[in-house]
Design a protein that fits this description.
It comes from Micromonospora echinaurantiaca. This protein has 10 helices and 15 strands. With 325 residues, it is α/β, with parallel strands linked by helices. The chain has 2 domains: 177 residues, Alpha-Beta Complex (Quinone Oxidoreductase, Chain A, domain 1), CATH 3.90.180; 137 residues, 3-Layer(aba) Sandwich (Rossmann fold), CATH 3.40.50. Helix 2 crosses helix 3, helix 2 crosses helix 8 and helix 5 packs parallel to helix 6. The longest helix is centred in the middle third of the chain and has 14 residues. The chain is globular. The two termini are 13 Å apart. It binds NADP nicotinamide-adenine-dinucleotide phosphate (NAP).
Length: 325
């Protein structure tokens, strides 16, 4: 088969479409014939040599895919060859075939294009596990989503709105119209406006009950300032740095919580549990048309370098797909 390899870390040109050995399904695994994968921010870091795959994961990039089951390994039940699926991966999605633990498979939701389904697993699992399972977002609460135009952000806005929360999203101005269409009640141009002031203004001084943050250090103080009493800040990205100063007095006064998580490095059993929760709670919202995959564009996998260049400029909205067909 062919896969994107990274012989030497570097710029987008480091991604090479190469002949490689086919994967074999181990016990409890299936091999998916990949129709599409999707670019995640983590892939850019992996290409640069800053985010090595966890032990045992494929060396090729790609944290999700959609395709058709091509082979079943020993001890797999409940799935059949030829079934259309999408999957959460620890790596290896940028390839024509990938082996994946069966617990990380999801059926293609009814009504979703089987290629566009590649845009769903990573964002659905990340957003649901953090915003719903960890932070417990409830109807009537306010959710602040940073990077509303990202793959993660476009999903978080839709999920928050579908759950009955009021969603506030930060993004560059040109993305605001789309984010409103996706369900953001308020949009903040983080380049021109102070998001703390805006969140306070639209919540009549209360603040955000849940914040999904991708910036890390550079937003830590302001995120705590934007929290409501009893608010939950969940950090999933460090685009603004990893070491910040936390004012515990400010957090304590609000009885607030700060959490940080990563999905990729979780054990297979934990991923399977998250996938199960997503299938039970999020898939019905997708099948009801309340949430849809947001695909900026599709590019052939052989042009992965171009896709990475685009994602580095952040001009995309939602996900950039890489297709094999
Ligand atoms: N921990 C986990 O398990 C996990 C899993 C998946 C993703 N993530 C993280 O989630 C983040 C999003 O991932 P992705 O693949 O969806 O990214 P992406 O599509 O590449 O988007 C990155 C976004 O960052 C936004 N941004 C840049 N500077 C900003 C600022 N100062 N304030 C607000 N937004 C800003 C950009 O928006 P503008 O165009 O508006 O500037 C862009 O939409 C990444 O940091 C990624 O590492 C974490």
């Amino acid at each position: 088969m062919r896969a994107i390899t990274i012989p030497e870390p570097g710029g987008p040109e480091a991604l090479v479409w190469s002949e490689v050995p086919d994967p074999e399904p181990g016990p409890g695994e299936v091999v998916v014939d990949v129709r599409a994968s999707a670019v995640n921010r983590a892939d850019l870091l992996q290409r640069q040599g800053h985010y090595p795959p966890p032990p045992g994961a494929s060396a090729y990039p790609g944290l999700e895919c959609a395709g058709v089951i091509g082979a079943l390994g020993p001890d797999v039940t409940g799935w059949r060859v030829g079934q259309e699926v999408c999957a959460l991966l620890a790596g290896g999605g940028y390839a024509e075939r990938v082996a994946v633990p069966a617990g990380q498979l999801l059926p293609v939701p009814a009504g979703v294009d089987p290629v566009d389904a590649a845009a769903l697993p990573e964002v659905a699992c990340t957003v649901w596990s953090n915003v719903v399972r960890l932070a417990g977002l409830g109807a009537g609460e306010t959710l602040l989503v940073h990077g509303g135009g990202s793959g993660i952000g476009t999903f978080a806005i839709q999920l928050g709105a579908a759950l009955g929360a009021t969603v506030v999203a930060t993004a560059r101005k040109t993305k605001h119209r789309v984010l409103r269409e996706l369900g953001a009640a308020h949009t903040v141009d983080y380049r021109e406006q102070d998001f703390v002031e805006e969140v306070r203004r639209v919540t009549e001084g209360r603040g955000a009950d849940v914040i999904l943050d991708i910036m890390g250090a550079s937003y830590l103080g302001r995120n705590v300032a934007a929290l409501a009493t009893g608010g939950r800040l969940v950090v999933i990205g460090m685009q603004g740095g990893r070491k910040g100063e936390l004012d515990l007095g400010a957090l304590l006064a609000k009885r607030g919580t700060v959490a940080a998580t990563a999905l990729r490095s979780r054990p297979v059993a934990e991923k399977a549990e998250i996938v199960r929760g997503v299938r039970e709670q999020v898939w019905p919202l997708i099948e009801a048309g309340r949430i849809r995959p947001i695909v900026d564009r599709r590019l052939p996998m052989s042009r992965a370098a171009e896709a990475h260049q685009l994602c580095e400029t952040s001009e995309h909205v939602g996900k950039v797909l890489l297709t094999t067909g």
